[in-house]
Amino acid sequence: MSHKPISKPTRRNFLKTTSAIGGSLIIMGTKATAGIKGANDRVRIAVAGVNGRGNAHIGGWMKAENVELIYVIDPAENVLQNRLKGIEKRAEGKFTTKGLSDFREALDDKSLDAISIATPNHWHSLMTIRAAQAGKHVYVEKPLSHDVAEGRVAVEAQKKYGIVVQHGTQRRSDSGIAGLHELLKSGDLPKLKIAYGYCCKPRGSIGTKPNGAPPSNLNWDLWKGPAVIDQYHANYHPYNWHWFWETGNGDLNNQGTHQLDIARWAIDDDQTHPVRMMAMGGRFQWDDQGETPNTMFSMAEYPNGQQVFFNVRNVNHEGYKTQVYNEYYLEDGSVITGEGRYKILRPGADKPEELKVPSGNVTPGGHFNAFISAVRANDPSMANGNVMDAHYGCVLGHLMNNSYRLGSEVPFNAKAGQFGDNKDAAIHFGKLHSIMKDGVGVPENEAKYVVGPTLTFDPETEKHTGEFATEANQLLKDPNNANFKIPQISEV
Questions:
Q1: Which CATH class is domain 177-362+387-491?
Q2: pLDDT tens-digit series, residues 303-318
Q3: Which numeric CATH code is attached to 21-172?
Q4: Closest by Cα among 3, 99, 5 to 58
Q5: Taking the model in full, what pTM does it have?
Q6: Distance CA 434, CA 411 (A)
Q7: Handedness of CA 21, 26, 31, 33 (dihedral sign)
Q8: How distant is the alpha carbon of residue 209 from its chain centre?
Q9: How far apart are CA 312 and CA 314, in angstroms?
Q10: E strand or H helix at 115, and its extent?
Q11: In this protein, which residues make up the domain named GFO/IDH/MocA-like oxidoreductase (predicted)?
Q12: Residues 249, 351: Cα–Cα separation, whole Å
């Protein structure tokens, strides 16, 4: 994979792009220009990307007190018009919402306070960066970034302009989860050894769609935005973009972002990025157009020795067990399970006991209302899941994916994993392998695993080091289309 150098996005290039769609662009370099004057002032918000998750954003903001939805934004005209009709009925004349195809027109509006981003992943960072430059607060769906480098630029944009950024990892607003993590770090429990996340929910094949012209109601250039895609096919829009590397990050950084974020949240607070990581898995049985794995076991180790394990298992079968949760393995052999309310199985015990956990520190009101509270206070620290939390959690997933993407095929069998003396990893991979072999029915030695190398990473420079560094560092930054480039940090 070749990566073009990141050049400065000039006003001329942005205006040229916007001119083609009948809009304009103004970037305002003032700090937190969208600050709300008082607790009772109305927050004016726009939602970008309204086909799927964005519809939930619309509902959330319309239920929030004294919030006005002034724009909905989508490059698919039919989606946009359907949403506007629904909003008109639900608003009951309280306000008028305008539809736009280009988010930059909304950023031109000085009365706009915040933008809520629910687009495909490849748009998340660029919209966050441009909104920050325009002084608008940002609620951005998970993952914050599509690659490591653009996530860092989004972080620096938030720092420079002082806007609120809240990540769409809703469990950050759960005081029970926050309380457990505070307890784990208090010293009152044995030290955390492994934080384990599961994203095991059944999915199906997406088939294969031929290349062709995009539908007339879709502005394909705007939909692509930063993503370099050679040709359109119908699996990109509206949902299956998740399973292509140019636009998505697989289920590890889709649904899995929630559980991955929880796992990293449990790691000691002085740890930022892991220093070693590897992943293995495959796309079994479906024989479709998708690129990302439907089965994956991954692991990462932090400088202090704590580890994060992650398990993706999407292939449906008789007796399938959905697992979308987290587990915590402690150094004394105890295991904590649950979400919000917890049980602990101690070494030698026959059954788990209830673990009493005090409520943790979160901004109250639920995830949407917490964001509005932070916006009204003009206080980024009030965000449940701020830009740094988002960056660290998303990078963890990106690094695991990097290992997988650099992997080699080996026979599908229980000895496929290369875990050295990490007995815990071997045990947990063995459990996944047994399910794929006995439950799904993948034939041993006839199918293939993709086994990624163990990569090393420098948390300070955010670069891969050591063996495979050259190849892995190429995956830290995606190429971008000329008029939608992610700016360098110095250009923010």
A1: alpha beta
A2: 999 999 999 999 999 9
A3: 3.40.50.720
A4: 99
A5: 0.92
A6: 15
A7: negative
A8: 26
A9: 7
A10: strand 114-117
A11: 233-325
A12: 38
